[in-house]
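Lesson 9: reading folded outputs for more than one chain in a single document. The general rule is that every protein is listed as its sequence immediately followed by its structure tokens, and records are never interleaved. Here is the first one.
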Amino acid sequence: MNYVQLSENDEIWKKFSEHITFRARSADERKAENFIKVPFKDALGLVKDRQVFLHKGTAFVHIKNLNTIARSQFRAKLMSEMVKAYKFLPTILKDARLSQLLINLSNHNAIDFNLAEVSAPKDSDKIRLSDLDYYARLSFPPCMKVLFTALKNQHHLKHFGRLQLGLFLKGLGLTVDEAMQFWKSEFLKKIDGDKFEKNYSYNIRHMFG
């Protein structure tokens, strides 16, 4: 990154200082040296949230917001390197230490490393319960894929997560019995059957009227 710090003598500062500092609260925050010239594509998150002043492809970012850019760049770099690493996954999985590390990571939040290949469903007019893993990876919209993967990893979803995913699965054509089987197969990995019936089964049936 080759970012340039502003100074009081910059023509752009003399002309647009009031616009550049529009988010600054105190006099100290409104000093020129507190702002960095950043290519706007590196600050898209800040641009989207209208946190910075833009001029001719340059975003004028306060130093306190550089952590947002750093996180975004780290995430992009990490994703790029993970795509490269995925090509060598069969080799990586031969190392027991690395394979266990990836499996442990995949048990958190909504990370899906696709460590196990899923079989394509056979020709059918109906999406079957056994086909959900396949369709979740290849066809679910991102929001539903996140919920589905989080459920698979954590064996639990909060109420509104269950509601959103449950109604989506209903829309796919699952019956109430299939839905009950689906949720029970995940939740029973963390709780007993009595607790599931008492706390969750009614809401699942309620989704189907």
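And here is the second record, again sequence then tokens.
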Amino acid sequence: MGNRIQENREPETPKLRVLCLGNSGAELWKSRADAEVAGVVNLYEEASKGKGGSEQYRLFADTSAALRELQPDVVYMTIPPWCKADMATIRTVVEAGYDLYLDKFRPADWQDADTLLQWAQATGRQIGIGDAYQFGDKVERVKQVVACGQLGKIGNVVWQCYRPADHAFWMEAYRHVMLEDLSYHHFGVMHTLLGIDKFQRVYAESVRSPWAPDQPPCVVSLQASGEEELRLHYYATWAAIGKSGSHLGQFRIEGSDGMIEVTDDRIVYVNRQGEVRQLEPVTPFPYAGRQGIIHECVQACTEARASVMDIRKMYPFLRFIRTALNSVEQGNPAACR
């Protein structure tokens, strides 16, 4: 009987084999039963600094050598906040015929987003642009409300984020730390919910807080407009006094048929008749934050489909950030193109 049971078992699905570029990314995969880290490239020399727990995995110094020897199913890049994206390595991966997912894009120059798009189009490979905040229970509920048309035609978006002053050393790697780092996630969520390419003109200011002089410019005020009176009002600070909220912030989306507002502790929907209804986040939500990025990577690979994080889909929000930075530097409104 034992032999017959053994014979009738369904063959196990092979685990997705992942090559991690950057040591800290390997730890994010440990909870996945359907994937395994085949090796780690010590791309940012974290192993020599005792970071990332790389002793558990095969460690490589060269990306090309790791690709040749391991032939992984997918490549996953994690960039420490004090570093910038290694564009030469990204090109090596996609030109070798592999899809690459970035935990978060940290470019030295935001024009590099155009380069990533060109490489993806030229090679036919996917370059995934990770944004951990789009994978969350509150964002998922808002996504459902917007998708089913409960807000009608969107006309006004208000977003605010208040964080206390932070003097982390990695902030010195940015010219405009709020706009390039935390705002990255806010605009990523906006793009997921609404399509940030609907905003065609941006005026932004990024300033240094006088009471947080050790930080780079960390207070951002931004106005954006689109067709048919579509407006975005955005304010974010990493130097708040007397007020602090989540890293996601609070936001309000107003449309012709209703309004939805997200704060740290609730989600409220108001219809056109003024009826107020409190909504619950989508639960259970097992793959939130960075685990959501990894789950989407696994699903896209196993289902052989285009990822929601592919550069072709995420490019508009990277272009939006670049446009905002251009507006800051020029001191004038800038067009998204």
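What the second record shows: Residues 133-285+311-335 form a domain with the Dihydrodipicolinate Reductase; domain 2 fold (CATH 3.30.360.10).
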